[in-house]
Amino acid sequence: MKIKHLVSLLAIATALSACNMAPDFLKPSVTKTEVFKEAPTEKELSAKETGTWKVAEPSAALPRGEWWRVFGDDKLNELVEQAVAGNENVKIYAARVKQARATAKISRSFLFPTIDNTTGFTRRQPNAVGRGLAPGTALAIENDVSTSFGLNYELDVFGSVHGGWLASRLDAKGAAATYQSVKLALQADVADLYFALRATDRDIDILNRGVNLRQQNARILEKKSDAGDITELDVASSVVDLENTRSAMHAANQRRSELEHALALALGKVPADFAFEKTAVVTKIPVIPAGLPSALLERRPDVTAAQKSLEASNERIGVARAAFFPSLFLTGSGGLQSDMLGSLFQWSSRSWAIGPLMTVPIFGGGRAVANLDRSKAQYEEAVHVYRKQVLQSFRDVEDTLSRLRMLSRQATSQYRAEHASKRAAQIAKLRYDEGDLGYLESITARREALEAERAGVEIKRARLSATVQLIRALGGGWGDPALKPATVPVPVTTEKKNG
Question: How many folded domains does the chain comprise?
Fold first, then answer.
């Protein structure tokens, strides 16, 4: 075969390789919605509510992706960066991305010819009897020097190789999206743990102040009891109140230790080597616009991963179909062989062979049909997984919007209850000191004030956590110029007095 014929054959094979047996990919339809169900109503944003609610002011200028910076907390920024760099789970999925990309490169390599070289030198002593000569006949030692090149190339006429490469490339993109989803989940977990630790520190601070006040009060009551001014019942009641408060403080400290250990794990550190400084600093609650519902399909990495898996399954249907058709290979070999190194490169030492090779499937026991059925079933499964992920994304946003709305209202009510309970405790103490109220009633009022203050801290933590979860549900980004952000009301009074 002449060189020009070989070139022509390769050109034809390249043209035929453009054939793709995969079905045209169509993104599955999902139920569309124009607005979120839990978005605030016009009534909530009406003029009647202006004393309680305000329209959200989205932080559109913040860098997309570094969503945690919306909280304006340097310590949180530092922890998130440490977690992304040190968390073992993130490293696992980063390695999986590398594996998927390497697999795609391996699949792509089959689109090109395989060329290899074999070079060898053999020195042997021939056997005279084996060559039909008399025993004892002396034969000269022989040398054999050779070098050859081999060519093997599958002419991808029906797109089997190309489809496999496309599927592997889509798998790699899906792995990258999954990695981003894992990283987003880690960032959200770190922020949630951080705010929980901050809230626990405030709770411990409140309980510690309560213990100190009750210790002072118990000592005063003991002196009054010794003087005969009060009964022993009042003293015993004060001790019960003190120990209950102290028990709650011990429980809060235990909870803090567990949160600290969880944060250390998220950062990829040994708990014994990690200590989170205690602080009662309050983090402000930002307002996050939900945006348009359709934007979730573009921003959430888990939805992207599901779509790439779906596209890869579609390509594998084409690969399974191609198995019903013949496979055409171009093989060739050529080289030099001589009994002396000096004559190896002479023209007479050459040898070559080239030609096409075709394999035709005739009978495989139904293997090809079963493989195609499996590919179609895998595609069907991927369709339902994609739709489920989309529906889950809408639910996640609706849940967090509803939670934020209710917590915002709850915070307003709790703020009022907290101030009222503190006032009631003050009045009860004054009445007890004047002898107009029993000690049990006074203790009850103070206990209610303590619990109200702790409840306010917990609601603040829950609002911060819900804000983090909303950002996660939105895919970790917002403020796209093309989007009209939804308005999320927040209680003005709570932000001014509780923030």
Answer: 1
